[in-house]
């Protein structure tokens, strides 16, 4: 008599490694407190300014950085730009108290994947962290409206294929590469190729900019986008 092999126990997903960057210790303490309630978020370090953030990121290798924008020594936009150049796989969530257009645009242009306000609920911020770890965009609704209004984007160098257009629309709706692959019945590697090609054709640098392009040109709508 043969026996079916005992199934391997499911492997629990690894927690998202998060670095908190804010010049106010009380803010960092509050973030650490409520993010610590999520077993799949691991706050691995803190920094009080952009310069400290770059040093910590080089040592700790976080998956996601929660970045304040207005800080002494080095501001969050400058730090985000440098961090994304040095650690392109680390995602940055801008977490601030302002919706000033130059801050919103500056953070996204620097490479932040999401833009949130400090009055966001703990659940909203936790969702943004998990989304960022998957490469998904989360934007405060008002920030999204301003970004779409002011977004210039690149000039399309050649036409998108029908498949690239679908991928762009799904990307704008917050789908990860895995989600897109499942939806379209293709491999994640194929999705990565589509994303890389459409970014090149549009002259864009990031998924967030691609999402804004889709919104600006009517390929996706704000009603269907995770903001």
Task: Describe the structure in your own words.
By secondary structure, the chain is α/β, with parallel strands linked by helices. It has 2 domains: 16-149, Response regulator (Rossmann fold, 3-Layer(aba) Sandwich); 153-224, Orthogonal Bundle (Arc Repressor Mutant, subunit A). 48% of the residues lie in helices and 13% in strands. It has 10 helices and 6 strands. The chain has helices at residues 25-35, 50-60, 76-86, 101-110, 122-133, 141-150, 162-172, 177-184, 188-202, 207-216, and strands at residues 16-21, 41-47, 64-67, 91-96, 114-117, 138-139. A 6-stranded parallel β-sheet has the order 2-1-3-4-5-6, with helices on both faces. Helix 3 (76-86) packs parallel to helix 4. The longest helix has 15 residues, at 188-202. The chain is globular. The N and C termini lie far apart (56 Å). The modification 4-aspartylphosphate is found at residue 68. One of its GO terms (biological process) is phosphorelay signal transduction system. Pfam families: GerE, Response_reg. Residues 153-218 form the HTH luxR-type domain. GO terms for molecular function: DNA binding.
The H-level CATH homologous superfamily of the largest domain, spelled out, is Response regulator
Number of helices: 10
* Strand order of the biggest β-sheet: 2-1-3-4-5-6
Q: Report the mean per-residue pLDDT as an integer.
A: 84
**Rg from C-alpha positions?**
18 Å
Q: Uncertain spans, ≥5 residues at pLDDT below 50?
A: none
């Amino acid at each position: 008599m043969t026996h079916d092999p005992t199934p391997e126990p499911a492997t629990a997903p690894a927690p998202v490694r998060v670095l908190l960057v804010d010049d106010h210790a009380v803010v960092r303490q509050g973030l650490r407190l409520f993010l610590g309630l999520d077993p799949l978020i691991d706050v691995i370090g803190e920094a009080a300014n952009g310069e400290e953030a770059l040093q910590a990121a080089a040592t700790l290798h976080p998956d996601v950085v929660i970045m304040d924008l207005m800080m002494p020594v080095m501001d969050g936009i400058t730090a985000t730009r440098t961090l994304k150049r040095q650690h392109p796989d680390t995602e940055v969530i801008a977490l601030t108290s302002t919706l000033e257009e130059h801050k919103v645009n500056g953070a996204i242009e620097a490479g932040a994947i999401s833009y949130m306000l400090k009055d966001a609920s703990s659940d909203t911020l936790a969702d943004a962290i998990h989304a960022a770890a998957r490469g998904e965009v989360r934007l405060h609704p008002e920030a999204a409206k301003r970004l779409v209004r002011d977004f210039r984007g690149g000039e399309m160098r050649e036409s998108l294929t029908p498949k690239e257009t679908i991928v762009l629309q799904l990307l704008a709706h917050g789908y990860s590469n895995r989600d897109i692959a499942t939806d379209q019945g293709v491999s994640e590697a194929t999705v990565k190729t589509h994303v890389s090609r459409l970014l090149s054709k549009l002259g864009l640098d990031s998924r967030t900019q691609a999402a804004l392009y889709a919104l600006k040109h009517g390929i996706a709508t704000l009603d269907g986008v995770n903001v």
